Amino acid sequence: MNRRSEIARPSPEALLREAAQEGRGRLKVFLGAAPGVGKTYEMLTEGNARRRGGLDVAIGIVETHGRAETEALLGELEIIPRLEIDYQGRILTEMDIDAVLARRPKLVLVDELAHSNAPGSRHPKRYQDVEELLAAGIDVYSTVNIQHLESLNDVVASFTKVRVRETVPDRVLENAEIEVVDIPPDELIERLKEGKVYIPHEATRALGHFFSKSNLSALRELALRRAAQAVDTQMLDYLRAHALAGTWAGGERIVVAVSELGNAEELVRAAKRLADALRAPWTAVHIETPRDAQFSDDDRRRLAQTLQLASQLGAQVASVPAASPIEGLKRFSEEARATQLVIGKSARSRWFELRHGSVVDRLVRGTPGIAVHVLPSPEGPAPKRPGARPMPKGSWGSPSGYLVATALVAAITVLGVSIYTLGNITNIGLLFLIPVMIAATRYGLRTGLFTGALSSLAYNFFFIEPVHTFTIQDPQNIITVLVLLGVAIVTSQLAARVRAQAELAQRSAGQNSALAGFARMLTTTTDPNELGQTLCAEVNRLLGANTVLLLPGDDGLSLAAAVPPENRLEAIEQAAATWAYDHRQPAGRGSDTLTASDWLFHPLAAGEHALGVFGLARAEGGYAIRSDQLPLLLSLLDQAALALERIGLEAEMATITQLKERDRLRAALLSSVSHDLRTPLTTILASIAELKRTGSGDPKLIAALQAEAERLNRFVANLLDMARIEAGALKLALEPVDLTDVVSTAAHDLRRALEGHKIVLDVSPELPLVRIDAQLFHHCLINLLENAGKYADPGTPIIVSASRQPGGIALSVIDQGPGLPPGEEARIFETFTRIEGSDRKGGTGLGLAIVKGFAEAMGLTVAAANREDPKGACFMIRFPETVLVKSGAAA
Amino acid sequence: MSNEPKILIVDDERAILRLLGSALERAGYRTIAAETAREALTALQIDKPDAVLLDLGLPDRDGLELVPLIKAEGVAVIIVSAREATEQKVTALDLGADDYVTKPFDTEEVLARVRTALRHCRAAESEIVTAGDVEVDLTRRRVTRAGDEVHLAPKEYGFLAELARHPGRVITHAQLLRAVWGEAHVADVEYLRVAARSLRKKLEADASAPSLIRNEPGVGYRLIAR
User: Fold this and answer.
1) B198/A675 CB distance under 8 A
2) Beta-carbon separation of A678 and B218 below 8 A
3) B106 contacts chain A (CB < 8 A)
4) Does A459 have pLDDT greater than 50?
5) Which residues contact A391 (CB under 8 A, 6 or more apart)?
6) Do B62 and B88 touch, CB atoms closer than 8 A?
7) Would you state the pLDDT for residue A889?
8) How far is CA A591 from CA A126, A273, A285, A374, A588, in A?
9) A4 falls in which pLDDT band (50, 70, 90)?
């Protein structure tokens, strides 16, 4: 039931992914099983075909390796010059991504997708360049060999024994069109023998093995399968986006547990393959236990890399604090509703398993309903277990602990001796438990053992017969000594565990209270700069890093807050910040992009928009943030982004209220002006009519009066119309309109003004209806007809005609007269343009500007032209297809 | 007592009151003037005018509020206003106003509209309405053109009859749709356009320059009678 409704609804992720594709360039990848199959040749051939088809094609970078047949194909295609990079005295050339972006071809050819760029380039990897080109809307053709694919890296290495370092994340290919360039292995081996395959010098050693027929067949199979899988995924996306019923595995969720150990990356790749096969979302989780505090820098870096790899392969990444890995995994798997759990079998000793039981067994028992995949750890030197490594310095305990312990033992000895003098009490040894327990609890195992040993010695020396010697006669007393040592061990371990859990809980509580306190601070802020200062200060306090916040202004990003306040950014850092802002992805040291920047920048994003960029750096250099601090930072940034968005919305609301108030005032002013001017005009015109009727006064004078008053009336009407247009305050009342209606009504209304001209209406009653504002269009026609009446030679006809044309309907008002001054046809619709030397004709020059304003508000276009034979002007209004009313609803 | 119709002119501009008054009197009507809504309502009760020329921008009340009150007395109302927005016209006509003239007006035009309104008011409903060479017999539901019977579809006849019942007066789109197609189609202006086209084809001399059924852009249709 539930399942079905889930299938029928379009998946939001799929829709988003489709939406993100729109406006982006498309990637086509020529995928080969091995070098030499002819990927570059194929790509160039197709690029040439597209160019001949009229497409704007350019070469971003192509390596011909001096092969003539490939070079011949370059001939016609434009090559964008490469960028030269000086690296340690050597000149390296790379694709000039800025030149490509500036040139903006429709399609660019970029060879070798997996290539690593020279140090100092914008991105470390070429596929990142390609992603930026795609984001800019440029289509890209590229080439890659199957063994460069991240998730297949291990698999390929396992049978070819050649591991390539340059890899491309699978997600890059997920949305790409994939064409497999395929030749049979025998043919490839033949080509190799003929020297037709370019092989990098350093690789020749491994070649004999790599190009074996069995390897090539396996690689070929991988390539074909990967291509088939890509087609599959894209079809599924389409199906989900369009909610078509299809069959795909549903409901599977995969969780892979990663640790700091070296084999974690293989676990991640295995999980990715499982996720692909099941088409399931997957999460890589690291369970943060008290043991993490003992990690070396190498461990931390390896863990961060593993998590980063997982996220590159498309996983969600989480870090969860828990007292033990098993407990953490159990809880996380339940929360994430995992159905498949991937873990590595750790190289525990048999001894460990005897004591603690198998981790795997306990996990399987503790997670019913979840399939647990256990991957063996690789052969070779087993990574060192924490137990085997030297104890960190701290656990030796502080010297003051030893002093206090010694003092305690001394005090107890004195106490014991004084009691002993009162009578021979055999159980005096129990007294020494007190210093041992205190020392073990407060100062840890080493100090506890030390105290145990000291206590045994003191007990032995002062109380055991023979007294004042270290010899023990009675075996019973040996037990006492052992008990003291045992108590020290057990107590210190218990205490240490309690202490570690308390610390962990404290850290979680600390993070939570920091977040809550921050949220509280933010709710009261109303100014972005103040918010920036709060954010910078808080991150500085919690993570101890230097911080800056950049907010967008009129001329790019500018510094809004900084802690300490003297922080300044260099050009490269400004560039990284801008990149992070534009792409809504982290940039700078510790990220994938512009790593030369000392600062790490994270965008503050709310929904689709970046609202600002947050930067952090360590005063002493190095990575700005530890991987385990990242979740806290991201939470803080999310909260800050929400608060920023809130502040922005509040400001927007205030502006809208202001605008509304201004619109209301403007409307009130317009209507009052129109009333105040019209009322006296009405009186004047009525009085003139009265004078005319009674025949009093000079008829010429009265005629002049009437003409001027009418002109003033039109002028007022035009000014009001123009004010409405310029204020953008036109409210459209769109309805289906019959052009016959409006044209005949306008001609009727103006019959007096156009006296002396025959008005020819040529508007077929068969034309489709148009969806426009009838009143506004009436104004347009009145203005056009008045204009025609003004300039037409006396006695000539004025023609209004409308006809169906490709792309819509064209309506023309045609007069016979002097026409428009040549070259003025376009300018004629501008405000206050009047035909030169025609002042005496009257009019304000507003009429045509109003026609244009009204017409464009309704989605129509206007044009003016001169006509010959008979000479005159023609004004045209075009109705596009979109305003035509299609149906012929029956009456 | 003379039999001349009495016209009540409501406007807050004295000059306009005076000018309209003298024009109407010269045309043979008796006139009463009111400067406010309150005066107008009093005059309506006491003087029992036959028609009211009503300005909308009155100092004490919006003139639109008076329209239903005046119509309730069975008196013709012609709006004379500087407000030229389409929705103002439609509102006034939908409230029952007989006609709408915008300021500045042509005095002759106002007189013509007054004549139409009075004729319609006084003659109750005439059975046969003539427009050009077309005759609409409202009782027998027959339409002839130059003496020959014209066959109309039911909706076409409904449309024409609705106009013919109020010759010379603008019937708003909503009024026509409600009367002929029913409440559910009150926004389907497209129906009117189609009906008007086919009516014109059957009745007009030149369907592309109609002289009988005329459209007021954005407002409604009018039958040019007589």
Assistant:
1) no
2) no
3) yes
4) yes
5) none
6) no
7) 44
8) 15, 25, 20, 31, 6
9) very low
Is A823 within 8 Å of A796 (Cβ atoms)? no
Residues of chain A found within 8 Å of residue B23, distances taken between Cβ atoms:
686, 689-690
In whole angstroms, give the CA distance from residue A324 to residue A366.
13
Q: For residue A747, which residues of chain B lie inside 8 Å, CB to CB?
A: 209
Percent with pLDDT over 90 in chain A: 8
Give Cα separations from B208 to A54, B93, B170, B205 (angstroms).
48, 27, 20, 9
Best mutation target among A670, A679, A762 (most B Cβ atoms within 10 Å) is A679
B12 CB-contact burial (10 Å; exposed 0-12 / middle 13-18 / buried 19+): middle
User: Chain A residues with CB inside 8 Å of B199's CB?
Assistant: none
Structure token digits, residue A746: 């306008």
The distance of B226 to chain A (nearest Cα, Å) reads 18
Residue B124 buriedness (CB in 10 A; 0-12 / 13-18 / 19+): exposed
Rounded Cα distance between A488 and A446, Å, is 9
- The partner residue sitting opposite B82, judged by closest CB among A674, A687, A890, is A674
Q: Which residue has the higher pLDDT, A607 or A178?
A: A178
Position A69 scores a pLDDT of 74
One-letter amino acid for residue A588 of the chain: G
- The sign of the torsion formed by the CA atoms of A521, A527, A528, A532 equals negative
Which B positions 139-178 lie with beta carbon below 8 A of chain A?
Answer: 153, 155-156, 159, 173
Query: Average of pLDDT values for A81-100?
Result: 85
Tell me, what DSSP letter sits at residue B51?
Answer: E
Which of A735, A740, A777 is closest, CB to CB, to B208? A740
The tokens describing A67, both together, are 């092969």
- Taking an 8 Å cut-off on Cβ atoms, the answer to whether B196 and A713 are in contact is no
CB A82 within 8 A of CB A93: yes
Whether the per-residue pLDDT at A506 is higher than 90: the answer is no
- Measured between alpha carbons, how far is B19 from B38 in angstroms, rounded to an integer? 22
Using the structure block, give the residue that is written with the tokens 């109609």: B210
Contacts of B176 in chain A (CB under 8 A): none
Q: Does B196 touch chain A (CB under 8 A)?
A: yes
Residue B172 pLDDT: 93
Instruction: Look at residues A568, A415, A437 and name the one whose alpha carbon lies nearest to residue A490.
Output: A437
A636 Cβ neighbours under 8 A, 6+ residues apart: A514, A515, A518, A535, A538, A539, A542
Residue A208: per-residue pLDDT? 63
* Overall average pLDDT of the A702-712 stretch: 85
How many alpha carbons lie under 13 Å from residue A202 in its C-beta half-sphere? Answer: 2
Question: A174 CB contacts (<8 Å, ≥6 apart)?
Answer: A230, A233, A314
In B, which residues are within 8 Å of A683 by CB distance? 13, 15-16, 19
Most confident of A76-80, A486-490, A708-712, B200-204: B200-204
The residue of chain A with its CA nearest to that of B14 is A683
Question: What number is the ipTM of this complex?
Answer: 0.89
Residues in A touching B107 (Cβ below 8 Å): 686, 689-690
What mean pLDDT comes out for the span A763-782?
90
The answer to whether residue B42 neighbours chain A at the CB level (below 8 Å) is: no
Global pTM reads 0.47
Q: Is the pLDDT of residue A807 over 60?
A: yes
Token pair belonging to A260: 């700091």
User: What is the band of A381 on the pLDDT scale with cuts at 50, 70, 90?
Assistant: very low
Residue ranges for chain B with pLDDT beneath 50: 1
Q: Are A735 and B215 inside 8 Å of each other by CB?
A: no
With bands split at pLDDT 50, 70 and 90, how would you rate the model's confidence at A799? very high
DSSP state, A755? T
Q: Do A678 and B214 touch (CB under 8 A)?
A: no
